[in-house]
Amino acid sequence: MLFQTTEFLALFLIVLTWIALIRKARTQHGLLLLASYVFYGWWDVRFLLLIVLSTTIDFAAALGISGRRLTIPQRAALSALLAGSTILFLVPDWPALQDGAGWGSWSQALAGGWTGRGLALTAGLGFAIAGPVLYGLYFRLNEQARRRAFLITSIAANLLVLSFFKYFNFFTANLAGLGDLAGMSIDAPIMHIALPVGISFYTFQTMSYTIDCYRGDTPPEQSFTRFALYVAYFPQLVAGPILRPSQFLPFLDTPWRLESRNVLSGANLVLVGLVKKVLIADNVAPFADQVFNAPDGQPTLAIWLATAMFAVQIYCDFSGYTDIARGISRIFGIEIPINFNFPYFATSIIDFWRRWHISLSTWLRDYLYVPLGGSRVSTGRLYLNLMITMVLGGLWHGAAWNFVLWGAYQGTLLCANRLVRGWFTDAAAAARFLASPVGVAFRWAITAYLWMLGWLIFRVTDPDDLIYCIRRFVIFDGRLDLSSLGLGRGDPIVALLAAGAFVVLHSFGFASRRWDERLTSMPIPLIAGVYFVIGLLMFYAWPAGEAPFIYFQF
Questions:
Q1: Who has the most CB within 10 Å: 127, 132, 270, 417?
Q2: Model's pTM, two decimal places?
Q3: What is the number of alpha carbons within 13 Å of residue 42 lying toward its C-beta?
Q4: Backbone torsions φ then ψ of 139, nearest 5 degrees
């Protein structure tokens, strides 16, 4: 279910009605959890099992880490929930049902022996049986061993599910490639499975919960419904931001209420997000796709323009989703942290990563970089820690070598940034120049060139096309002919206008106040006029088909 669809509008209005009419927190939590499952299951009901599995494991693991022993009836209830969810989500032929073709059956579910749904059913029911047994065995260990066992089980289960769905084919295909290089024939199995939407986001979110409980940074949640809502909260479920327990669970202590100032401010934030997504990102995307889908032969200028368009697209698409998620939550009375802080105005790569996808960069810092030793190690080890963190961060984005290369590129830039910063810190004259307006502009230009090259690596997946694009991006070929792009006709002009509007609006937002804050401070009649004008623009510029958010694939 996409934010910009009538189905989501209907779901949103239902949730608003619930919050307005129901004042009991526990009832709100249950209904919001139901709405979140409907939202996620709209794509494919079967993948709801993964969320229930992750929720059940991490809920029990956190309690086990804290030393609270679930009673046998409580363990049986969680086991029954997992078994029932396995049967409910896997036995019916949900794709056929969602397409209006009717219900499946047990025979259909188990068709094909140990493959497909039969294998998933066996795994789900097997874990429902084995889980309570393992839980009891862990409490026979000493305290430290018990805590570690629960933590390792939680992390291993989450990473196993993520790795299977996201990286299984990638690793088997590369294993076969290595076998060919070594003169061995390896018949690598290929699984024809769809990637669950947003699996990387909610997996990282649940992992942060159990790790925080293990560290003592957050108390374990006692209510399964509250924890399940934290995992599946629908505004940010499929593309973040990645919420920490302390950023969401305290909002569940009191009933949610609608307040006029939150409704107005949240609606303005939603509007800004829709403008970014519909009017800008979706209108510059065809330009970038035209070049990068067949880049061979394109001149340097075309590669530069397409890279700039993709930079606009990915920022407006992703930050637009975040703005809509934050706006919807603010209407409910929940404040989700900012995930983007004008990253394209960064004056260093370190500064860029403090501004871009903040929830992911801080997650990688707190749960990977710091445990590896962070900066409290030798210089060589520090650089190694940065490289490991960023390569894994690149791989988090997708199972493809261009994402690994992009992560290694970002890690190299961060290492170089630290090295160069140390040089200029020791040179007083150079430090004064870099702090001057001219020096700041120089640092911004260098940084912009570097993150632009990074987006080129991120966007182009074919190795041969990527090599060609990098060569053209770095070395200007002197060709100024852009006739192949169709400039002066239709979509390219629309894309250039949308990108130009982004530059102007983004610059004004950075120079003074964010646009949602500007809207909120305006008189109501003026706000109504803005909504009317933007509504007209969206009416004419709305994409013909559904355009999913880029980060849904991650």
A1: 270
A2: 0.89
A3: 18
A4: -80, 0
The Cα–Cα gap between 279 and 498 comes to 7
CA distance 241 to 319: 10
DSSP state of 221: P
Q: Measured between alpha carbons, how far is 485 from 128 in angstroms, rounded to an integer?
A: 56
Active centre residues (catalytic): 397
CA distance 151 to 69: 15
Q: For the chain, first and last CA: distance in Å?
A: 16
87-101, 190-204, 378-392, 412-426: the lowest-pLDDT one: 87-101
Helices 25-41 and 6-21 sit at what angle, rounded to 10 degrees? 170
| CA-to-CA separations, 386 to 361, 373, 377, 381, 390, in angstroms, rounded | 12, 10, 12, 9, 6
> CA gyration radius for the chain?
25
Calculated CA dihedral for residues 338, 343, 344, 349, nearest 10 degrees: -170
pLDDT digits 0-9 by tens, 463-507: 999 999 999 999 988 787 777 676 655 567 888 888 998 998 888
Q: How many CB atoms lie within 10 A of CB 473?
A: 18
* Distance from C-alpha of 303 to C-alpha of 306, rounded to nearest angstrom: 5
* CA distances (Å), origin 199, targets 46, 55, 166, 499: 13, 13, 9, 31
Handedness of CA 201, 204, 207, 211 (dihedral sign): negative
